[in-house]
Amino acid sequence: MSAPTQTLPEVDTRPEGTDSTGDDTPKMFHYVRKDKVVESAVMGTMVVALCGEVFPVTKSPKPGSPVCPECKKIYERMKP
Questions:
Q1: Whole-number Å distance between alpha carbons of 67 and 9
Q2: According to the UniProt record, where is the region Disordered (predicted)?
């Protein structure tokens, strides 16, 4: 039995972890539902990325930030 799917019309990105030097620069950002990003940032709740990663939002991406390749692949398949 396959898991149910749903369309996520608006997505945003979020960071994942830090590098091994202790720098707080994220390694990559993930695509998540935009309304869940705000909720997580304010309430500290967990979000689920398109690739399945689960985490609290702690940073906002800047232009040119690295994006999770799996999230990007899934997002591009969703585009009309």
A1: 18
A2: 1-27
Q: 11 by DSSP, 3-state: which?
A: strand
Say if 43 falls within a structural domain. yes
Mean pLDDT, residues 2-26: 51
Q: Report how far apart the first and last C-alpha atoms of the chain are (Å, whole number).
A: 27
Q: What is residue 4's DSSP assignment?
A: P
Residue 57, domain member (yes or no): yes
Q: Are 4 and 68 in contact (CB under 8 A)?
A: no
Is the pTM higher than 0.90? The answer reads no
Residue 50 lies in a domain: yes
Name the token pair of 78: 């969703």
